[in-house]
Amino acid sequence: MTGWVAMTHRPAYAAQMSVLRARLRRAAVKRVRQRHPWVFDQSITHLSREGEPGETVVLYDDKRKQIGLGLYDPKSPIRVRVMHHGGPISLDDAFFAQRLKAAWEAREPLLESDTDGYRVVHGENDGLGGLVVDRYASTLVVKLYSDVWWPRLDLVLRTLEEGMRPERIVLRLARNVAAHRAQDGDVVVGGPVDVHQGQHRVPFRENGLWFLADPIRGQKTGFFLDQRDNRMRVGDMSHGKRVLNVFSYSGGFSLYAARGGATEVVSLDLSQPALDDAERHFAANNDDNNVSRCIHRTVQGDAFAEMRKLAQRDERFDVVVVDPPSFAKRASEVEGALNSYRRLMRLALDLLEPDGRLVFASCSSRVDKDAFCANALEGAEEAGARLVVDDVTGHAMDHPVGFAEAAYLKAMFCRRAL
Ligand code: SAH
Fold first, then answer.
1. Alpha helices in 84-241, H assignment, sequence order
2. Is 414 a residue of the active site?
3. Residues in contact with ligand 1 (CB, 6 Å cut-off)
4. Which ligand 1 atom is nearest residue 227's CA?
5. Which long-range contacts (CB under 8 A, 24 or more apart) does 101-104 make?
6. What is the pTM of this model?
7. Catalytic hit among 294, 363, 373, 414
8. pLDDT per residue over 171-224, tens digit each?
């Protein structure tokens, strides 16, 4: 292993200290018994002593019965990441190695679809709360969403290195995780990322298309892998169509539409670097006749303003995809998010041909599927349009949903009723 100072996952203090124990409120006990992966700070009624980040904590009910084991996070409102529900076991190296292995083995069917860019570990949903691992061909990206993983990072890297044999592993840190023994974007195993078309990019395959991820600085871990199946469906409905992809990022939906036979695709995003990547993706797939024949235009700017301008110029599309960033990360933002979705729905309908298809997505975890769909249909009604909803889908199989809060992605596939 290069570029990384190995450290045992058992910090020196652990030898001298007593086992950390937490007693939980009734409601929290019930949630843990129902296999929920989080314990919030206010749910702890008694803590045997202050714990260190990542220390194992034993969870008890009010009758001192052990109900689970987790990792302690002193700074986070999610105070414990529950790793095991039930009686005594050891959260040792073998435990975590086994969880990692189970996660990467579960994704093996994806390889049959000419796909080597996918989520290997989806945090809580793979029994590894706060840890995400994405694969882009021979590059792995490990992203920490909680400090509890610092003492185990060496174990995680070693297990992934030995089991998956990547060329390199890049470390990414969520905003709430401070650099500790490495920084956001550090290559912690193997050599630097190669230069492709003048940029540090990792080429990978998704359903037979080439994409280029920026694992060092890109949003999330470099690509939005959760939309793979929804992109495939957009490809299937695009033959001979004009397609508008709003909030396109690096053009995931645009490429599938082009390969599916779209005559013209417009990618619209606020980020010019993301649109530059979309152009690179068209170039990288130019050997596909449909992609090379398709006219691709990019529009840089605010989606709300640019959609209005497109409508004023009387542009109309057969397929419109709207996949905005999360509008509600906090409960207080839900109302505003619902308003924004309704505005986007009205703007999208102004651009949609009378028999057009609309794909309307949301990744706001605070807005659940039912509320999202009802609100979107209200927006359509405000625009005087009647929509038929053919289907509402979620994430691709490498993003399993293990608890309610994890079902963040929903995509409505609609058509305008004449
Ligand atoms: N559909 C994309 C993922 C979209 S992520 C895919 O399949 O890969 C959300 C995108 O919205 C980001 O690329 C971000 O740059 C863009 N964005 C955020 N605010 C925006 C705004 N006001 N107008 C246009 N784009 C915006």
1. 93-106, 153-164, 228-236
2. no
3. 224, 227, 247-249, 252-253, 269-271, 274, 302-303, 323-325
4. 7
5. 101/159, 101/163, 102/126, 102/127, 103/127, 103/128, 103/133, 104/163, 104/164
6. 0.93
7. 363
8. 999 999 999 889 999 999 999 998 877 788 999 999 999 999 999 988 888 899
